[in-house]
Amino acid sequence: MIRLDGVAKTYRTRTGDLVHALAETTLTVGENEFVTLVGPSGCGKSTLLKLVAGLVPPTSGRIQVREQVVREPFPDVGFVFQQPVLLPWRSVLDNVLFSVEMLGLDPRQYRKPAGDLLELTGLAGFETKYPRELSGGMQQRVAICRALLPDPSLLLMDEPFGALDALTREEMSLELLRIWEERRKTILFVTHSIPEAILLADRVVVMTPRPGRVARMITVDLPRPRTMALEFDPRFKAHSDEVRGLIFSGRKERP
Amino acid sequence: MRTVRRLLGETLIPAATLLAALVAWEVATLAFRIPRFIMPAPSAILVEGWEWRYRFIGHTWVTLYETLGGFALSMVGGVPLAVLIVYSPALRAAIYPLVILAQSVPKIAIAPVLLLVLGYGEMPKMVVAFLVAFFPVVVDTATGLAATPPELLDLSRSYRASAFKTFLKVRLPMALPFIFAGAKVAITLSVIGAVVGEFVGSDRGLGYVILSSTSYWKTEVAFSAMILLSLMAIVLFAAVSLVERFVCPWLNPQGEG
After folding, report:
1. Is B102 part of the contact surface with chain A (CB cutoff 8 Å)?
2. Which end of chain A has fewer CB atoms within 10 angstroms, the N or the C?
3. Taking CB atoms and an 8 Å limit, are A102 and B173 in contact across chains?
4. Disruptive mutation site among B148, B151, B153, B155 for chain A (greatest number of A CBs within 10 Å)
């Protein structure tokens, strides 16, 4: 589904300094695979998502999605950010319809699917509310519905649960898995949380910073459907120790 | 109980304070025998103002017309100017210094020159009001347009929406509360601008009334005109707030939904 061949990204800051956001990275993601990217701040995780979405061009290397070289944004992508970034003047339903509207599709034909998505995420009955009348977790659900409505085959999620409290976060993780079981998609999911990365993923990509690079890819050996109880599974702990080791050994090398 | 307390806090206490001040004023003018052309008593202002009521209608109308014209100019000029500043770095470099220059020149100082160039009538006063009022519109609109979260711009771009569509559906509505904040400042400044314009040279309007009545020692009339000007500013401010509530219902705490 996604192929990155020697993709690197270097930014020039306003003062003229070069920042190596992402060192040469090679990565493939399969159709309907759930891949999480985990690592500390500044390891180029978000940059990688923007590169895949075609929002920024790579400095070198090549990105392909479905055999097509990515040179500009393409419509088959859904984006979810750390903040819900809903439009405060739109109702919940109209916020969900925002994606198809921006894609140039007729929103009237998507009212039914949008309602179905809201139902799927437990937001039935909230269609006419304004975003600020909703809790943070509910707002993020709306953002997920917005991303899912055009039914993209690729979902890019940039720390989508990072701003939520721990309990809501767990709930949302399981809910995302449930949605994913029902509507299979390829998901690239960026997170700071090691347990979250393991719980969700088929494969975990561990990244280290300055310059951001892939330290290792770990295939998660846990059965699906997953539950929070898996955190006590010895395999879960083994994975989590491995990820933690990679991230912190990477830190010790650099003072 | 809560509504009673609110009524007390928001209405009764300010009203009582105002009334007390007026009574103190009335008593002071009597007790200290202050000449009425220096400081007329509130009752005298009221009586004289009432006598002038028909003449005031015309003058108020003129000043209102100038104010609204100046305000309209500052919105029609200020909002697009802010859009240019936000969207084009080159235009920002070209326009911003001029905007700040226009703001830093004391308007009272350029008003005589402006009226010399533009002549008499209401239009030059609108220009003065515009000059006084447009700056907050530009600054607030530009701030609002720049306040769009970068994620929303990324999102629009990932859906391949045009820049114009993104402006119309995301950036402009996002900036609306800021634009209204600028408009509320601009409407009150427009009143000041219109009066400044009238001071410099006019034969109509409330500013003219203040100037001419004080030169004839008719201080009561000047005070009446001042009261009318304040009332006008308050009513116009409330009108803009009302429009805001209709245009931006999501900001309203008791909004529908």
Report:
1. no
2. C
3. no
4. B155
pTM score, two decimals? 0.86
Q: Which residues pair with A79 in a beta bridge?
A: A156
**In whole angstroms, what separates CA B221 from the centre of its chain?**
23
Residue A60, beta-bridge partner list: A8
Inter-chain residue contact B161 with A102, CB threshold 8 Å: yes
Could you tell me if A207 and A39 are in contact, meaning their C-beta atoms sit under 8 angstroms apart?
yes
Instruction: List the one residue out of B179, B169, B189 whose CA is nearest residue B68.
Output: B189
Nearest CA in chain B to A50: B154
Range name among A158-162, B72-76, B78-82, B115-119 with the lowest pLDDT average: B115-119
Dihedral angle sign, alpha carbons of residues B120, B122, B125, B131: negative
Question: Which chain A residues touch B156 with a CB distance below 8 Å?
Answer: 102
- Among candidate residues B179, B180, B187, B196, the one with its CA nearest the CA of residue B233: B187
Q: Tell me how far apart the alpha carbons of residues A112 and A92 are, in angstroms, rounded to a whole number.
A: 14
Classified as helix, coil or strand, B115 is helix
Does B153 lie at the interface with A, CB-CB under 8 angstroms? no
At A218, is the secondary structure helix, strand, or coil?
Answer: strand
B168 in contact with A, Cβ within 8 Å = no
Q: Could you give the 3-state DSSP secondary structure of residue B240?
A: helix
Q: Does A85 touch chain B (CB under 8 A)?
A: yes
Position B254 scores a pLDDT of 53
pLDDT in tens, B104-126: 888 888 888 888 888 888 999 99
Tell how strand A18-29 and strand A2-12 pair up: antiparallel
Distance, CA of A149 to CA of A117 (rounded, Å): 7
Strands in chain A per DSSP E: 2-12, 18-29, 34-38, 60-65, 68-69, 77-80, 154-158, 186-191, 203-208, 213-219
In percent, the amount of chain A with pLDDT more than 90 equals 60
Is the ipTM higher than 0.95? The answer is no
